[in-house]
Write a structure and sequence with these properties.
449 residues, single chain, 78% helix, Growth Hormone, Chain: A
Length: 449
């Protein structure tokens, strides 16, 4: 029985398959029109979402006078879609049309986020409406992200996946670094609810860009599966990740890293303010340095991987991230000294995730059969967001019981354990991407047919 209509990735015309190739991010963007449309749409919507990361909490606190408990609930409902729908989302994406899903999710987020400034303008905005919008927009974002990650391997040749993902990561880190500043400016000039209108418009523009994608794989609906239940399809996504000798350490190391990273994130700002007694301006500068390091890491990831190979680049990126917790814990003494140590740690925290993030996504897209990719991507997000949720809870607990400096050390130890999983696996010696085997990523029930 055929898996579905999305059976193969586009061929690499006139080139020998390889992981990094000679093409850079700009070259990949210039050659592949549909990927460029996806890239532009993602960049525009991410810019709007970066504004929302500032404007939405301020809307809750300043406009609606939310309590700490209400703010905690607002953060929790943002994760709910990934935890409750993360696994089945991949199945449903696989059964739909990629372009239609991208446009529909952008349209939904346009309406949802656009409703908030309208309700605020007429004096009808309430905290429960924020909960509802954040939850529903989170559902749309989940489907949009899984679809975009699954469509990318169809829009560029296999050997250009690394520069394609480098371009996406570079865009993400750049926009995240600048978008928050733009959000603060818009809130200052207008108001927090009014600034949310920028995000709504960004999703409208994004949807228009993605509606112009013409690739057959984006506009073709696969045949309906026969005799497969939702549970079977979810199991296929899990099998695709955990049965592969290269992908299993990637998913395990990444999940542990997400868990440890969130422990560190919970303690970081509190540590800078309370333990280091840094003024707000220096705290903001430290956060900006991490964002700038992320941009540099994304810029260098393609060349680094071409030089050392995808496995060592993944392990190296995780190692940099692991060291950040230990360096942070060493920050002490006069402000000039502690701030210098803090900046070093922030460079590690920014650059490391960009390097290993680009490589883990490219490995996943390259090694998993197209028919299973949406399910595997959704499974990845479920595990990562689940790890972050538990990490946030444990980070708060450890910060209270052990203290913030000790919590940073614990986070570094845990992330180093995740790095160890990758280092002790075949990833350590992976210099070139092996050919993808359909049987290695196909669920057992289908491999027998």
């Amino acid at each position: 029985m055929p898996l579905d209509a999305r059976a193969t990735f586009p061929p690499a015309e006139g080139r020998t398959p390889g992981f990094a190739g000679k093409s850079g991010p700009l070259g990949t963007l210039s050659r592949h029109r549909d990927f460029r449309r996806l890239f532009i749409g993602n960049a525009v919507s991410l810019l709007g979402s970066s504004v929302t990361t500032v404007a939405l909490p301020l809307t809750a606190v300043v406009y609606l006078h939310a309590s700490p408990a209400q703010m905690g609930l607002l953060g929790a409902v943002a994760l709910l879609p990934h935890l409750l729908l993360g696994l089945p989302a991949g199945v449903w994406v696989d059964r739909g049309q990629y372009r239609r899903t991208l446009v529909a999710t952008d349209a939904a987020q346009t309406v949802l986020l656009g409703s908030l400034p309208v309700l605020a303008a007429v004096g009808m905005l309430r905290i429960w409406q924020l909960y509802a919008v954040v939850t529903l927009a989170g559902v749309a974002n989940l489907f949009e992200t899984v679809t975009a990650q699954s469509l990318t391997p169809h829009l560029v040749p296999r050997e250009e996946l690394l520069p394609a993902n480098s371009a996406l990561m570079l865009s993400n880190t750049t926009v995240n670094t600048t978008g928050s500043a733009l959000g603060g400016l818009l809130v200052t000039l207008f108001s927090a609810p009014a600034a949310l209108l920028v995000d709504a418009v960004s999703f409208l523009i994004s949807g228009l860009c993605k509606a112009r994608i013409r690739h057959p794989e984006a506009t073709t609906r696969p045949p309906a599966p026969r005799g497969l239940t939702l549970r079977t399809d979810i199991a296929a996504g899990l099998h695709a990740l955990f049965s592969h000798r290269l992908l299993r350490p990637v998913i395990l190391a990444g999940t542990v890293g997400a868990f440890a990273g969130q422990i560190q994130a919970v303690a970081l700002v509190l540590f800078m303010v309370h333990d280091l007694a840094l003024p707000s301006a220096l705290v903001g500068a430290a956060v900006a340095v991490s964002g700038a390091a992320g941009v540099l890491g994304a810029s260098a990831a393609h060349r680094l991987t071409a030089r050392v190979g995808p496995g060592p680049a993944f392990v190296g990126g995780m190692t940099l991230s692991s060291l950040a917790g230990f360096v942070l814990a060493c920050a002490t003494g006069p402000v000039a000294l502690s701030f210098s140590v803090l900046l070093t740690a922030q460079l590690l925290r920014g650059a490391g995730p960009s390097v290993f993030g680009i490589n883990q996504q490219t490995l996943r897209q390259s090694m998993i059969a197209p028919a299973l990719l949406s399910r595997a991507n959704a499974t990845w997000r479920f595990l990562v967001y689940g790890g972050q949720s538990l990490g946030a809870l444990l980070g708060g607990l450890l910060g209270t019981v052990l203290g913030l400096r000790a919590t940073l050390v614990v986070s570094g130890c845990l992330m180093l354990a995740g790095t160890g999983i990758a280092f002790l696996s075949p990833l350590r010696g992976l210099r070139e991407l092996p050919e993808r085997s359909e049987e290695s990523t196909r669920p057992p029930t289908q491999a027998k047919n």
